[in-house]
Each structure stands twice: as C-alpha cells, then as structure tokens.
User: Fold this.
Amino acid sequence: MPGFELFGDKERNEVKDVLDSGVLMRYGFDGMRNGHWKARELEKKLAQRMQTNHAQLVSSGTAALTVALASAGIGAGDEVIMPSFTFVASFESILALGAIPVMVDIDDTLTLDPNAVEKAIGPNTKVIMPVHMCGSMADLGALKEICDRHKLILLEDACQAIGGTYNGKPLGSIGDLGCFSFDYVKTITCGEGGGLITNNETFYKNADHYSDHGHDHVGNDRGAESHPFLGFNYRISELHAAVGLAQIDRLDDFLTLQKKNYTILRDALEPIDGVSFRRVPEGGVENYSFLNFFLPSEDITQKAHTALGAGGIDACFYWYNNNWHYYKKWDHLKNLTSLAPVAKDVLEGMPNFPDGHFKQSDHWMGRTISCLVKLSWGEDEVAKRAEKMATIIKNQL
Assistant:
C-alpha cells in the first residue's frame, strides 16, 4: 500500500511551505499563516475525489473511526457489527466510546458476510461497519439493503482501500460515513493521519466539533468559540496535512502502478491448478494494493507461505496467524484486558464467542495468502518475482 515509496519534491515543497509560514497548527494564527491552510485544502480535495459533500481530517485512521461513530451518536451499550478479519483499530474505536463490538464471519470477499450480519442484528445494534481489507470491498449492495431495512448506519472502513470503487462510486462514499487512514503504510500517506467523509450535514458538523475539544469554529477568534458539546483532541497538524496534500494529487498515478504490478502477479498465478482468488463483489473495482489468493488447504497454505519467505519473496502475509489482523490472537479483546476498569455496558454486553464459533472465517483465512503490491518495483523486477512465486507455489501443490 505504501505511498511513502514515492516521496518527492511535491511533498517537500508542501512541507517547506508550512515551515516557512511557521504555523504548524491547523486552527487559528490567521495573520501569521499568510492564507496557507493545508488541512482545509486537503479536506476539500478529499471530498471532491470521494464525491461527497464533506470531509474532516483527523490524527489517524483510528481517530477517524472513533469520530465517525461519535458523530452519529454511538455510545454506551450500542452495538457495532464488525468483521473477524480487520485491524485492531476497529474494536478499539468502538470500545473507546463505551459501545460494544460484535464480530461476525467473513466470506470469500475476505470481508463481512451479509448473511452473518443479518443473524447478528439485535435490539441494540446501531451500526454495520464493513472493513474493506487489503484493497477490496464488502458486498455493499447487500449490506446497504440490510441497513436501510433495519434503519442502521452503514460506516465504511476504507482505510486499506482508498481509490477502489463500487458501482462507479468511490469506496467510503456509499455508506452514511466513510473512513480512511493516511499513516505511513497506506496507499497515500500523511505520515500519520486519517479522514472521514459524509454527505450528512449533522454528522459533519459533529465530527468537526468533536475532533477539536467541542469547538464550534464560529468566527475567527479561537478563544471566543463556544462548545456545544463535549469533545476530544483528534486534530491533524498542518505538517501532516501538507504531505497528504501532495500525495492525494498522485493517487491516480499510484493506483495505475499498483494495477500494473498486481496484474503481472495475478497473470502468473491464475493458470495454476489449485490457486483461486478472493471474490470481488459484482460492480466492484479493487485498488490493487494486495493480491489475495486461496490455496486448497490450511496445511498447503502454511507451507507455501513459509516457502515464499525462504525463497526471498517478501511482503506476503498469512493473516491466519497474525497478531494484528485476525481475531484468533486478540486475547486482550476476548478477556477485556485493560489498564483501567472496563465500562459496565461493555462488561455486560460483550458477546462471549465459544471456540470454533468463526468456522467460516477460519475456512477462508486459513487458506489465504495476501501479497503486498509495491509501487517501486521495476518491470523486470516484478516479472521475475511473479515467475518465482508461481514456481514456489506449484512446488507445494
């Protein structure tokens, strides 16, 4: 995913502009900054690129999810349905608000299974949060229909899939809210940062205020601003926004490179008997940041993953045994291990999943290898990599 591979003069010039002004904070100091507002500019460009009315920048993708949930009024005791394959930020953002994460199975899209979602809906369910993992999307048509029927909020976590589309619309723009991460290893980066998008005016105003201590941002005197409600500090800095401002202009170039390299790898593996690929929902277009494929069994997949590493093929991941991305290693969530007492609503409402509950997820994740698609590969390099990958995998089948 990393846009950091192609840092250049555009990023340097935007950062230099901030340093020359001397104003590193996104709010206030109007007279000193000489009309330079990097965060505002990036928000405008993000909203335009994602075809939405509003965008709000924050300090991380985790912050974006937290602020998005808070902006929609999600709090103590509310349930948010999320997938068993995601990043820990998904449940962290939910728990931060005293809400309850309800994990459900994934299907062959490696994202939320709509049938499992339907079964998990209860009286306290407020949000369905699909996570578009590894560059591709959930079945958003089915999930949106479920949300409309049950009057639930659809919150898209598109942190790993910026630039992908569904039925011609950018990922993140289909739901009531969409979130992105701009950390160091995302398709475009601010170093650290995140953003949320929405067409809902109320959600946007809430996000704007909540992410900056509840400031209403009315007028041009920060000290005189009122606080309509409690908020917290999830601000992005002008330095981080400056980097992202340069990167978003390069997004389409990055996507073109990813698709080119992805296609070379996929073309090499596709003829191999025993290799199949994750399902992309009809109408969906990946952002090509990962090539995700299945092998016939868990045992073969583990051996193939080990062999790829031994053969010098880096950046291939076996998420089934990964600490960050799959529920199996989330003992701190299962046991609610915390530095401070856990909220009563969470203690009483947290589902207790028995061993073997996520058999469907295990079926898919146990057979999945995800290969990162780099931007910096030369044409010969990616061709040799594809050939070597194909040889290694054939030897395991």
